[in-house]
Design brief:
Blueprint: H1 7-14, H2 19-26, E1 40-44, E2 49-53, H3 73-79, E3 82-88, E4 93-96, H4 100-103, H5 109-112, H6 115-119, E5 122-123, H7 128-135, E6 145-153, E7 162-172, E8 178-187, H8 189-203, H9 213-230, E9 234-241, H10 244-251, H11 253-269, E10 276-281, E11 284-289, H12 294-309, E12 324-331, H13 338-355, E13 360-362, H14 367-388, E14 392-401, E15 407-417, E16 423-425, H15 426-435, H16 439-456, E17 462-466, H17 468-471, H18 474-486, E18 494-499, H19 507-520, E19 523-529, H20 536-542, E20 546-549, H21 551-554, H22 561-576, E21 580-583, H23 589-598, E22 602-603
Parallel strand pairs: 12-13, 15-17, 17-18, 18-19, 19-20, 20-21, 21-22
Antiparallel strand pairs: 1-2, 3-4, 3-8, 5-6, 6-7, 7-8, 9-11, 9-12, 10-11, 14-15, 14-22, 15-16
Helix pairs in contact: 9-13, 10-11, 14-15, 16-18
């Protein structure tokens, strides 16, 4: 094969701009045939170049071995949407295969003839091709150095961008600097579109097109850092769509999605330039308002609330009326980190929803609330530690018959021994445990302790308190079944009190729980009746055995006509439903006598005796208390 040296100078003198034309004048026709491959690359000696196959072991770097049965190089490249080039860097001349116009249909040939002209069409960085040669490490031995880049080209700002993938290799001159490059370009619009779509999905919520939670939080952190640096103020708002679950239930998730999208659109339409909107969770949006004072926050919040509530949302199922609530915090004044800002905005959003759906609440320092939060954190840690160290114990409070004062059963009240030997009582433990999701663990431990007491004392009846959340816990039910089988005769002496301080979400599920317990032989009581959510209608559906009247109504019956009327009515209704009653917090003999006369079955409280860690049934002479009146 003739040497390749001097091809470029000859081509330049004769004005050749085409690889096929160049090769035809320097190589016999029998060599200008292609091998059976789908991809090609430009290779060459230290002084010359030619297009050859890039993956066939028989192809040397200095000559092309081809067969006669295949079409011209340019034809195959065109069929693949590719074009080849040889770039003489020293003279800034680019020679293209004759199908280059198919790859660059709207680009004049003059713009492809040199790096200088071609780079004018490249974006985002015009120097990307030259930079690629300088950035890739040079290989010795004249083998050339591979590179690969991607860029866009277009002839004007109004024209669409044509995304190009360029793969090639460059060769160094005597001074070690790039002297020549050769390679293949191909249009890469589809892959670029896919990549951009994946980038969009990684940053944006697919339903609304706004920032997703991850990037919203990152933007909040950046805004706080920027505000600290420049001593400015901004606001972080959480906007929660009210009662979205009801829309889901009434119309379906597709309608709820339409509502979410429309709310996002309405918020977006009322933002200023530079403000940031993102979807924080299912029904919540996060807003970062730059350079926003407290007064600005109030005005902006009302603008967002009005924009959401004033017009119904049209959906395929008909118009839907929507309101939203907003919780906001001023940053960095009251939140110097993204986590702190989110927590405080969440806190105020919950306050707004509790006060009135569709309202706005702004976070402000609250000494009592902060103190209570610190207590919650401390108690949470103590509860978990006490459970692990078996420092949860029982106090036993007697419940006696109202007429005879004979002990009927004992209510087991939780105690938690602290490091200093003091005890935390149930009112300090249970509300925190319920709020923070620890009540299930506490109820498991109490069940074990109560069953152990019943097994050790065959003549005693005990009651234990559990949360409605625990009634839905299959592990707790499995535990009680296992314990009942292990200790025959215990179930009949066990009373399970379901506290009423937490709303009962599914009365049918709770009725199933009650039925299973009663089938074991246990009795069911509703604790603190009158202070929570249970109605007499639910009592009848549940089939409970005992109602414990909340002490807040009992303690003042001797002085309050309203409390007397309420308690007497409860006792009368319970008797008609054949449900036993227990009056809590009985303070004096006058109250005890009134309850007895009204037909209350049992009483408990300070008059009878408060809870003690000592077992009253183990002390002779205290099995029954003296009757009065």
């Amino acid at each position: 094969m003739p040497a390749l040296a001097g091809l470029f100078p000859a081509a330049q003198r004769r004005g050749l701009r085409n690889i096929n034309q160049l090769c035809a004048e320097h190589f016999p026709a029998k060599w200008l045939r292609l091998s059976t491959f789908a991809k090609y690359a430009l290779v060459g000696t230290e002084t010359g170049s030619i297009l050859v196959t890039g993956n066939h072991p028989a192809v040397s770097r200095n000559e092309a071995i081809v067969t006669a049965a295949f079409p011209q190089v340019s034809t195959i490249l065109a069929s693949l949407g590719q074009a080849a080039f040889v770039w003489d860097i020293a003279t800034d001349t680019i020679i293209w295969s004759d199908n280059a116009t198919a790859v660059f249909p709207d680009i004049p040939a003059a713009s492809l003839a040199s790096r200088m002209e071609f780079s004018k069409l490249i974006e985002p960085e015009r120097s990307i091709r030259s930079d690629a040669l300088g950035d890739s490490p040079m290989h010795g031995g004249g083998e050339g150095t591979l590179y690969r880049i991607e860029y866009g080209v277009r002839t004007s700002t109004s024209a669409p961008v044509l995304w190009i993938e360029e793969s090639g290799c460059w060769f160094a001159g005597p001074d070690g600097r790039p002297a020549r490059a050769q390679g293949i370009v191909r249009v890469n619009n589809e892959r670029r579109a896919r990549d951009q779509h994946l980038v969009t999905l990684s940053r944006h919520d697919p339903l609304t097109g706004e920032l997703n939670r991850t990037h919203l939080i990152a933007s909040l952190a950046e805004a706080i850092e920027e505000s600290l640096r420049f001593r400015t103020s901004c606001a972080f708002m959480l906007i929660g769509i009210d009662h979205l679950a009801r829309i889901n239930d009434a119309f379906g998730f597709d309608v709820a999605d339409a509502v979410i999208s429309e709310v996002a659109r309405r918020i977006r339409a009322r933002l200023r330039g530079g403000d940031v909107l993102g979807r924080f969770s299912g029904n919540k949006f996060g807003l970062i308002l730059k350079n926003c004072t407290v007064n600005d926050m109030n005005i902006a919040a009302e603008r967002f609330l009005a924009g959401i509530r004033d017009d119904v949302v049209p959906t395929k199922s008909g118009p839907v009326s929507v309101t939203a609530s907003i919780g906001a915090v001023s940053v960095p004044r009251y939140a110097r980190s993204a986590d702190e800002g989110i927590n405080r905005a969440h806190e105020t959003l919950d306050m707004a929803k509790r006060r009135r759906p569709g309202s706005f609440s702004l976070w402000r320092p609250n000494v009592e609330h902060d103190a209570q939060r610190r207590v919650n954190i401390r108690v949470t840690d103590e509860i978990v530690t006490a459970l692990n160290e078996r420092r949860i114990v029982m106090g036993f409070e007697p419940v006696v018959e109202a007429r005879t004062r004979k002990a009927a059963f004992y209510e087991c009240l939780i105690r938690m021994e602290q490091d200093d030997g003091q005890f935390l009582l149930a009112p300090d433990i249970v509300p925190v445990a319920e709020k923070l999701g620890l009540i299930r663990l506490v109820d498991h431990r109490v069940l074990e302790l109560v069953v152990a007491e019943l097994a050790a004392s065959p003549n005693v009846q005990l009651s234990l308190n559990i949360s409605p959340h625990t009634t839905m816990d299959p592990d707790w039910w499995a535990s009680i079944e296992s314990l009942m089988r292990a200790h025959p005769g215990v179930a009949e002496r066990l009373i399970v009190e379901i506290t009423e301080t937490v709303a009962i979400q599914d009365i049918d599920d709770l009725r199933g729980f009650v039925t299973r317990l009663k089938n074991l032989g246990s009795r069911i009581a509703i604790d603190d009746f009158g202070a929570g959510y249970t109605s007499f209608r639910n009592l009848r559906k549940l089939g409970v055995d005992i109602v414990k009247i909340d002490g807040a109504f009992v303690q003042n019956i001797a002085r309050s006509a309203d409390d007397r009327a309420f308690v007497q009515t409860l006792i009368d209704l319970a008797r008609r439903l054949k449900i036993k009653t227990v009056a809590e917090w009985v303070q004096d003999e006058q109250s005890a006598a009134m309850l007895r006369d009204w037909g209350c079955d049992y009483i408990q409280g300070r008059l009878i005796g408060l809870a003690s860690s000592q077992r009253p049934w183990g002390v002779p002479g205290q099995a029954a208390l003296p009757a009065v009146g």
